[in-house]
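Give me the fold.
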Amino acid sequence: MLRTLLICGLLAGLCGGLLATGFAELAGEPAVNQAIAYEEAHTPPPRPGTQAEPEVVSRDLQSTAGLLTAATVYGLALGGLFALAFAWAYGRVSPGTSPARTALWLAAIAFAVVYVVPFLKYPPNPPAVGDPDTIGRRTALYLAMMWISIFGAIAAVRIRRAAAERWTTGTATLVALASFVAIVVAAGIALPSVHEIPRTFPATTLWRFREASFGMQAVMWTTIGLVFAGLAPRAMSGRSLVPWRDRAPRARTLGAPSTD
C-alpha cells in the first residue's frame, strides 16, 4: 500500500512541478529579468586589465530547461514526502475522514506550515537583491523558521488530541490552532530579521517577484492535493490508478451463436 501511495505522490508532484513551471514562466520571469537588468545597471564596470567572471550557466538555459528541471525535481520530492505524511496522518489526525478529504486538508496545512509561515518572516528576494556573503546565514534562518513551524504543527496535533478528551472537537481545534500561532509568532519575534534590499530597488519589481513566488508554491501544493486526492482512493481500494483499466472487456467465446 505504501508503495502505491508513493507512486501517487510522485505523480502528483510531477504534475505540480509542470504546472508550477508554466506559472513561473508567465508570472515570475518578467520580475526576474527586471531584477537582473537592475543589477547590471548598478554593477560597476570591471577594472582595466581584469576580466569578468565567465557565466557558468546561461540565462536562457536557466529560464527554460533549468527552471523545468528544478521545479520538476522539487515537485517530485514534495510529492514523495506528501505521500509519507498522508500515510501517517490518515486515520490518526481525523478518524472517519475520507482519503480524498484528508489529502486536500493535508495539502492546505502543508502549504501553510512549510511555506506560508516562513514566507511571512523571510520573504524571497529577486536574484539581484541580497549580499552573496550572507546567503548561508539567510538560508539557515529560513530553514530554522520552517522547522519551527513544522514542529509547532506536530505539537498542535498532539495538543488537539489531548484537548479532544476534555472538550468538544471544535474547542480542541481552536486550542491547537492558538498554540501553533503562539509558537510561530514567538519564533518570528525571536529570530533576527534580514534587511538587505537596496533603497533604490523598484518596489513594484520586488512585489511582483514575491507575488509570483507565492503563486508558484500555491499552484504546486494545490495540484499535489487535487491529484493525490483523486488517486489515493483508487489506490487504497485496490483499483488501478488508470481509470480506463477498470473496464474489463466483455468475454467472447469462439463459435458461440449470436443472440441478436
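Residues 248-260 have pLDDT under 50 and may be disordered.
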